[in-house]
Amino acid sequence: MNVRTGHVGLNVSDLDRSRDFYRRVFGFDVVRESDEEGRRYAFLGRDGELVLTLWQQSEGTFPTRLPGLHHLSFQVPGIEDVRRAEAVIREIGATLHHDGIVPHGEGRASGGVFFEDPDGIRLEIFAPDGAGDRPAPTPAAPTCGFF
């Protein structure tokens, strides 16, 4: 069987806030959305491809201590794309882990930024090359472990 990830669906507590966050940080377009009370959602994508669906079906913040999603990772072509995303993340005041762009591990060229969305869902934007000139935040563990 040949499989690949289709789109990712996230429960959010405030659709407007989350939609605006993901559009701003990732540059997604709204493909489809509903403002019907009790059935609010937004489909986000780029170039006609659905990437992320947001469903206003939750309250509170994401509980990292429970089984489930660890983090959501997005690959971009180059480190300049990561720098642009980092600037937006800092500008909007999102929680940023590791204080900026870091490699995936000691001696690795790949790396990116690790941060949280408005509901506390952990996110990563990385490039396959260009982060190797920085030290890894946790030399003995993968950076995407959010240790």
UniProtKB/TrEMBL annotation:
The keyword 4Fe-4S does not apply. It holds the Pfam family Glyoxalase. InterPro entries: Fosfomycin_Res_Enzymes (IPR051332), Glyas_Bleomycin-R_OHBP_Dase (IPR029068), Glyas_Fos-R_dOase_dom (IPR004360), Glyoxalase_1_CS (IPR018146), VOC_core (IPR037523). Residues 4-128 form the VOC domain. Keywords: Metal-binding. This is VOC domain-containing protein. The keyword Acyltransferase does not apply.
